[in-house]
Amino acid sequence: MMINNLTNWLASRPRKSQPTTIVLHATDGASAGSSISWLRKIGLSYHYVIERDGEITKCVPVSRVAFHAGKSFGPSGNNVNNHSVGISFANRESKGEKLTDAQVRECGKLVKELALGVPSLRYLTTHYAISPGRKTDPKMLEKTTIRVFAETAGLVVWGLK
Questions:
Q1: I want to staple 123 with a disulfide (CB 3.0 to 4.6 A). Which of 21, 110, 116, 154 is the partner?
Q2: Are the C-beta atoms of 111 and 155 separated by less than 8 Å?
Q3: Spatial separation of the C-alpha atoms in residues 119 and 94, rounded to whole Å
Q4: β-bridge pairing 64-66 and 12-14
Q5: Domain range 3-157, CATH architecture
Q6: In whole angstroms, what separates CA 140 from the centre of its chain?
Q7: How far apart are CA 122 and CA 118, in angstroms?
Q8: pLDDT for 8-33, tens place per residue?
Q9: The model scores a pTM over 0.70
Q10: Domain boundaries defined on the chain
């Protein structure tokens, strides 16, 4: 798995506690690059973005809080940004685009690597689970795949029925 670091990180702030949760998202953008440019413009961020070919871009260090969850509630309480790592697929979800095999494969590897490298991580969830009624992403990712990611990484799936 190859991870490219942005030269200049996206918006973030210092983390006061260790992350407990990985949150999966979709950018709804044309590409990882265009999504990252848009995030930079509006002051939001993910820790990682996965392009359609499986290339992963690290946008914010895990040691910092990224701005990806908005108003939310997760396994460690309100404001999920404070205790999470955000991973997003570059994907046009609103246009019905499916995830690529490369995106799914690399996300599974990334989730496992994060779980091994950050011992405080315990949960895997989605933007729609932490912001019900407000967000739908990543609706194109099968719940069974999310469960496989969690099981492989030794994490617990949170908020999915």
A1: 21
A2: yes
A3: 35
A4: antiparallel
A5: 3-Layer(aba) Sandwich (3.40)
A6: 14
A7: 9
A8: 999 999 999 999 999 999 999 999 99
A9: yes
A10: 3-157
